[in-house]
Amino acid sequence: MLNKENTPLIIDSIREGKRISTMELLKEINHRLEEGVTDFIVNASGQHNIGGPVWNKNNDKITFVVKNPGQRAGSMGMENTSITIEGSAPADVGWLNAGAEIILKGDGGDTTAHCASTGKIYVSGRVGTRSGALMKHDPKFSPPELWVLKNTGSFSFEFMGGGIAVVCGYDCDNIKSVLGNRSCVGMLGGTIYVRGNTEDLSDDTWILGLDTKDIKFLNENIPLFLDKIEKKSLSKELTNYDSWKKIVAKTHEEREIHSLMPIKDFRKSLWVPGGIFGDLIEDDLYVAEYVQTGDLRLRYPEWRNNNYMAPCEYNCPINIPTAKRISLLREDKTKEALNMVLDFSPFPASVCGQVCPNLCAEDCNRKNVDIPVKIGELGTLSNEIKIKFPPVKNREKIAIIGAGSSGLSAAWHLRKMGYAVDLFEQDKNIGGKLKQVIPEDRLSREILDTELNRFKIKGIAITTNKKVDEIIFNSLLDTFDAVVIAVGTHIPIIIPVKGHEKLIMGLDFLKMINSGKNPEVGDNVVVIGAGNAGMDVVLGAYKMGAKKVTAVDIQKPAAFEKEMDEAKNLGADILWPCYTEKITDKGVYLKDGTVIKADTVIVSVGDRSDFSFLKNEFLDDKGKIVINDFDQVEANKKVFVIGDAIKLGLFTHAIADGRKVAINIDNMFSGNPMDDFKLAPLMPKDKIKKEYYHPLNEQAVIKMNIEDEKLRCMSCGLCRDCYICLESCPEQAISRLDKENNSYEYKSDPNKCIGCGICAGVCPCGIWEMTDNVTGKYIEA
User: Fold this and answer.
1) How far is 706 from 380, CA to CA, in rounded Å?
2) What is the structure's pLDDT at 621?
3) Residue 677 covered by a domain
4) Average model confidence (pLDDT) for the chain?
């Protein structure tokens, strides 16, 4: 697609006198490709990697005309891509070329066509050191070709394994060797056609004359080459084959053997059985070949699907397997994907989608390409899902004290397991701080109420306005088979400074707002405490009509940056370190002498749990409940404690506690050992191949539909069933096996596998892993 003037799109790399970065340039190119543009003129200023790898949805031909490129122009260039470079270019032109046509109208730097595997590179001048090195040829594709009008630098075609190179030696009559010094070292395959003087070639090669097939090839292609570089007038001179020759590699049998005696012969004729190592090892006199299968491989591959945790799952307090969820979305198993989230949390839309800081996305590998997958927004897709609960099938009954996020989570999972649950909540509504404290600006009441309504089902008995005291608690111990304490923290901490009686408790303030009481605050408000709850108080104060709000803290604020930015956008100041000395009618006095004017002072430095219903035997000398590693109370193992009553955390930590305690209560009733929920290892970042993914424009990503995020997920540690390993294995050792329940696995045949590691190298998701064969035995993958 061309622009409206029917001309290629011009991209300038200097904007307002400033050079844009390589990443910015490549993102713009890919963004334009997404829009359908296929023809580019790039006025570069040394940016790298221009022209590869790129492609578009319709597989249209993509053309680039590039001026002043940096290194790696056309690197990994793909089939159906044409790159014309006006003038010379630095190192690595066409490095790892994978099918592109590259026309260089000038000289090339070092390592031109290095590792090229297919495609054609035409150079109208010279190329530098190690050009053509490691060229190779996969028989599935056409061989790579490198055409050079003049000469190459030293070490050219080093370790060449395949492909075709043509060095025309034009205007090089006075050069001792048009291939430089020490050319073709380690050459194993391919053909080099060269015109002009050559010397100092590797002994591992043959210099041969041209046969009729060679001349036919050159006759057909030299005019094409000269047309590409606009040098047609040289056709007659270059098609005189008196000075042409070709270079090919010697076979293994043809090479000179430098060893006085082959190891094989030494082992069979001179090795003394039972010699100096006879008491340590019994020698079978077997001599291994260079490349081995089976037991004698140095390494063997293992298909470790789902053995590692993706960063999103690892960093999520609930350990929601987002990669699995997105994999189901990619397979159009939408209902299964949305239901899967409810196996981990009853609040995917309200908590994950709105109030959670999304720790899952902080370490998302996609951010190394453009921006993290929008995992939080994916949670909103599960908001309207209807779930069918099993009948109550277990005789044991569980009481849960507190219907906040942790208590409701425990009730949800126990009910899904078939248990009857009784919830006791001292407030008039269930939901805890989600309902009582979080401002509606941050949490939609409609979404929250939709998720809370899921708890109005048979098997969950909800009793509100019920404050549990010691008598009621002891009755619960007698009546129920397990009791879960999920009371949260609702007793505000008061700072002991002069005038503290003037303070308004932040928790009470937020509860009043959420209940519709609209407390008066005056024009100037000071909030003591700058954590996330403090930022909620700041938002609440502005909502109640404050004109200026200042939050102070004795240390660096613990609030998340997103929350602080929202407060600052409303006009709030956040100051630290600030030590409050006293509070008067004039405001807050700090110990450094500063006075902050305040009509209202609200404190939000934390809250504590109310354990007044427990006997002293349950508590330590600091008033905390004594529990074991499984959140069981040491004084009574049928009692469990979860959520903020153990340790302050995010809503997701509380939800995770509820799920874990439900599983361990079921373990207790079933006679199974308690689960410590040890995590699988985190997927190493270097195993994920970001090269397979196009960077997208950030604004384009933001505008994408949530469902489209399934295309951006890199599926860390979870096989995408892409067949790349199967098709890339040089020994065809890998096979795909269908299993029950529409599952599958990939296996490597040890009798074919040579342990080369290509499967691990090409796997986009890091599934294949090479294991050292330290025992001399293979494990069948």
Assistant:
1) 9
2) 84
3) no
4) 90
C-alpha 532/C-alpha 558 separation (Å) is 7
Residues pairing with 608 in the sheet: 491
Q: Which pLDDT score, from 0 to 100, does residue 387 have?
A: 85
Q: What is the pTM of this model?
A: 0.71
The Cα–Cα gap between 411 and 527 comes to: 35
Q: What one-character-per-residue DSSP string does 682-748 give? A: BPPGGGS-GGGS----HHHHHHS-GGGGGGT---TTS-----HHHHH-TT--EEEEE-GGG-EEEEE
Ranges of the chain whose pLDDT falls below 50: 1-5, 778-779, 781
Answer yes or no: do 699 and 750 share one domain. no
- Domain check: are 568 and 440 in the same one? no
What sections of 501-646 are H helices per DSSP?
506-514, 532-543, 561-569
Q: How far apart are CA 231 and CA 173, in angstroms?
A: 18
Counted domains in the chain: 6
Q: In the prediction, which pLDDT does 700 show?
A: 73
Phi-psi region of 739 (alpha: psi -120 to 50; beta: other; left: phi over 0): beta
pLDDT of residue 283: 66
Range of the domain at 507: 491-608
For residue 648, how many C-alpha atoms fall within 13 Å in the half-sphere facing its CB? 12
Alpha carbons 498 and 485: distance in angstroms, whole number: 36
Is the omega angle on the peptide bond into residue 496 within 30 degrees of 0, that is, cis? no
Under 8 Å between Cβ of 361 and 372: yes
In Å, how far are 15, 474, 491, 616 from 487, measured between CA atoms?
58, 16, 11, 17
Rounded distance between C-alpha atoms, residue 611 and residue 467, angstroms: 12
Co-location of 593 and 619 in the same domain: no
Confidence at residue 480, expressed as pLDDT on a 0 to 100 scale: 96
**161 domain-assigned:** yes
Q: Token pair of 490, please?
A: 């609702």
User: What is the gyration radius of the CA atoms in the chain, in angstroms?
Assistant: 35
User: How far are the Cα atoms of 501, 530, 579 from residue 555, in angstroms, in the given order?
Assistant: 23, 9, 9
238 and 147 in a single domain? The answer is: yes
Which helix (H) or strand (E) segment holds residue 603: the answer is strand 600-603
pLDDT at residue number 5: 46
Same domain, 19 and 69: yes
User: Would residue 532 count as lying in a domain?
Assistant: yes
Identify whether the C-beta of residue 218 lies closer than 8 Å to the C-beta of residue 176: no
